[in-house]
Amino acid sequence: MSLIEQRNKFMAFAFAGADLLVELDKDAKVRFATGASSALGYPQCTDMQGMDFSQTLAAEDRSLLLHLIDNVAPGNRFGPVMLSGQEDQSINPVHVCGCRLPEDESLYLSISYESKSGPAIARAGRDTKTGLVEREDFEGVVTEALASAQENGHDVKVSLVSLEGQDQLVERMGSAQGEAFLGKAGAALRSASFADAAAHLENGKYSIVHMADTDVDAVLREIETVSQEMDPEKCGLKAEADTVDIDKEAGAKDVAGALMFAVNQFVTADIHQLGPEAIGGALAALMKETGSRMSEFRSAIADQRIRYFHQPIVDLQTQDIHHHEVLVRFEEHKSPFEMVRFAEETGVIMELDAAILKKAISFLSGQSGPTQKNLAINVSGRSLSSARFTANLYSSLTKINFPKSRLMIEITESSIIQDLEQAERIIQKIRKLGHKVCLDDFGAGAASFQYIRALTVDYIKIDGAYVRTALKRKKEAMLLKAISSLAHDLDIRTIAESIETEEQRAMLKKLGVDQGQGYLFGKPSALVAEERQKQAS
Question: Which CA distances in Å does 23 have to 52, 78, 90, 287, 295?
Fold first, then answer.
């Protein structure tokens, strides 16, 4: 084979996995470029030669590129990492892999196009100072990284990193130097991560997914050295990490859910103060406990150990029952709030929502006669983000054999809805089928008015905290009146929770609230199929 044939063959292999090939010198200047540069938003390849490639990148990604140029050893490779272009240059986000050849100072990059609507890493929000994925988007990125690792047979681990004294260090450095340090620290963590799965959890706390053989201690020493060099007082900071093994047999989504639940508990509980060895043990124990709870949760659903109840919701004017809300209990005489919140934080809430949907449809399908009940079921905002759950929801709703108006869907606000546009599309498809949609827990969270602005619904259910205090505090009563008035102006009906006294009912009626729910109208009772009720009588 001739040299030209060999060159063409290797170029073909390279372009099989990339759109653009770029060679950079030690100053990030382009030595050579070939491929679809214009399609990615870059100049023509001939015009790229000599340009500073780092200046085409968003500020938070510039540090990463410069770090890679300085730290990729001859014969080593990195990537893929996600790099974003400067907004004013209209350069598309790209996936970048790179390598350095032995005895060659150049850094060779293979660049492929990545759409904003692509995988989780492409959609993730990033901390502008470190360039790391924001905490709220890390679960999706972890899921993606773990799935890729399992698919390709990679052995990966997760490390939590604590930079003790970071805030004080940045304050000593001043704004410009402090941001420069955070950029360097973030770049060091990103370069050590697998599939760019590195996150900013909160000030001084980070997490990365990385290959099992990654020398995390070397990364920490690098950050400590940089902190000492940049610190006006030459004190620097102390970097510590704990590494947790990943269960290779568990699904990526389950591992990511357990990890994020454990990380959130870890950060909230401040157990990072226990010291390095204790932290590792605590995090590992949290992940193990979380995995066991997830398994137990699924077993309870599969073995039908969940108990279903229903509670009436009445018209405050006539006191006639309008519909019943389906409720669940995992243990007798114990609130399900903790279990439901756990399910939402770990992602298994979708399985519970699917089970409740199935139970409600079965109950309504089995009813006949003049006293048929109408039901409302809860669907978590998190479940709406799952394509699999929404596909099952649509399929189930289109197959029912009773009037659609007899089943209402309540969207719970306890899990923040990230993509309101997508949620609105889903809600309108549900309403178009003939089902009413209610926004639950209205007023309980800061996002309530954002939701009512973005989502078109038929009902809002006002959080019970307002009802419980409205008779004692005029402010709550006026808020109830304002919410009711706003809802009516938007052609939305209102439901109030936690009504326990006749005095509360009269007040809510006077304030314009349409319907109510609470012990005054009936406690939750078992949701029993009509056939069993007849047999019992």
Answer: 12, 15, 22, 43, 49
